[in-house]
From TrEMBL:
<feature type="transmembrane region" description="Helical">
    <location>
        <begin position="60"/>
        <end position="80"/>
    </location>
</feature>
<dbReference type="Pfam" id="PF04143">
    <property type="entry name" value="Sulf_transp"/>
</dbReference>
<keyword id="KW-0812">Transmembrane</keyword>
<dbReference type="GO" id="GO:0005886">
    <property type="term" value="C:plasma membrane"/>
</dbReference>
<comment type="similarity">
    <text>Belongs to the TsuA/YedE (TC 9.B.102) family.</text>
</comment>
<feature type="transmembrane region" description="Helical">
    <location>
        <begin position="92"/>
        <end position="119"/>
    </location>
</feature>
<protein>
    <submittedName>
        <fullName>Uncharacterized protein</fullName>
    </submittedName>
</protein>
<feature type="transmembrane region" description="Helical">
    <location>
        <begin position="126"/>
        <end position="147"/>
    </location>
</feature>
<keyword id="KW-0472">Membrane</keyword>
<feature type="transmembrane region" description="Helical">
    <location>
        <begin position="12"/>
        <end position="29"/>
    </location>
</feature>
<keyword id="KW-0997">Cell inner membrane</keyword>
<keyword id="KW-1003">Cell membrane</keyword>
<dbReference type="InterPro" id="IPR007272">
    <property type="entry name" value="Sulf_transp_TsuA/YedE"/>
</dbReference>
<keyword id="KW-1133">Transmembrane helix</keyword>
<keyword id="KW-0813">Transport</keyword>
Length: 149
């Protein structure tokens, strides 16, 4: 259910548009798909293995931008966007590990498949996004309705 008191469609539209614009620019200028997990993994590989350094500079620039983005936002507005974590630290760490495993098995993450893959009409990305979504729905249902009964 949407929390109508905190529903911010304009900022969501602007944020989504900026992500889409960034994905389009990266694809047009570099011929690369904006998949955050792939960019992070390739950057780490380039740092650890000198032979894999092709494209390392733009990948590092992307990751630095991901880190600096919230800092710049905070400097401009005086606060960070509010977020609420309803899980304990251990569950968040476990969830992050499971997501990382899933991105490896699925050959990409939600940004790569959901934004770029679907925009390219990739059947593989459609299958991945449907799997991500179905898994999220089932997990949410189990955690909200079956756990602790």
């Amino acid at each position: 259910m949407i929390d109508i008191d905190n529903f911010t469609p304009l900022s969501a539209l602007i944020g989504g548009g900026l992500i889409g614009l960034a994905a389009a620019i990266l694809y047009v200028l570099n011929g690369r798909v904006l998949g955050a997990s792939g960019i992070a993994a390739s950057a780490l590989e380039g740092i650890l293995h000198p032979a894999a350094r092709d494209g390392l500079s733009w990948r590092l620039a992307f990751l630095v931008g991901v880190i600096l983005g919230p800092i710049i936002y905070m400097l401009l507005t005086g606060t960070l966007p509010q977020s609420e974590y309803i899980a304990q630290d251990g569950r968040l760490i476990l969830a992050g590990l499971i997501v990382g495993l899933g991105t490896g098995i699925g050959s990409g993450c939600t940004s790569g498949h959901g934004i770029c893959g679907l925009a390219r009409f990739s059947r593989r990305s459609l299958a991945a996004v449907l799997t991500f979504m179905a898994t999220g729905f089932v997990t949410t249902f189990i955690l909200n309705h079956l756990v602790g009964m």
